[in-house]
Specification:
Blueprint: E1 18-26, H1 29-38, H2 49-54, H3 68-83, E2 90-98, E3 107-122, E4 125-135, E5 141-149
Antiparallel strand pairs: 1-3, 2-5, 3-4, 4-5
Length: 150
């Protein structure tokens, strides 16, 4: 019995294919506070409710924004079963950007498009490059990044 999913090896990916990952993840206030504190993020937009309420025109109507590292980590996690469960290594993440804010209680889903496949110079693996999107249920893209795995 295999402990990893079939269909997520180098030879299973085709350039141009898009995988819509099945699971979603609702981001909680606890998730945001924990990650923000762990990395010692000092951007108060993520943790200072008094500030955002005092300046609602500046801060999304008085709502705190989820720290982007949380959004990215969750999007990568949602995609991992289908894209890198059998990978040997995460090689690179590049050209990432946050395109829309995420708030406490928002649910995100992930989608990966195969951009490139190439030889890795070894017999047991190849390199696959994906465009990873994190989206809200209505299709609004909140994060995008190019992700390369071995």
């Amino acid at each position: 019995m295999s402990i990893t999913q079939d269909g997520s090896y180098f030879e299973d990916f085709t350039v141009g294919d898009t995988l819509e990952h099945q699971r979603g993840r609702t981001i909680t206030e606890m998730d945001n506070h924990m990650f923000t504190s762990l990395v010692m993020n000092t951007a108060e937009l993520h943790f200072n409710q008094a500030l955002v309420e005092r300046e609602p025109d500046t801060y999304y109507g008085g709502k705190r924004v989820v720290y982007g590292g949380v959004v990215l980590a969750f999007a990568v996690g949602l995609a991992s079963q289908d894209t890198s469960e059998n990978a040997l290594a995460e090689v690179e993440m590049d050209n990432g950007r946050h395109t829309n804010p995420v708030f406490h209680g928002d649910t995100i889903f992930a989608e990966s498009t195969v951009l490139e496949k190439r030889d890795a110079g070894r017999s047991d693996a190849g390199i696959v490059k994906f465009k990873l999107l994190g989206k809200k249920p209505d299709g609004t893209v909140v994060v995008e990044i190019e992700r390369t795995v071995l």
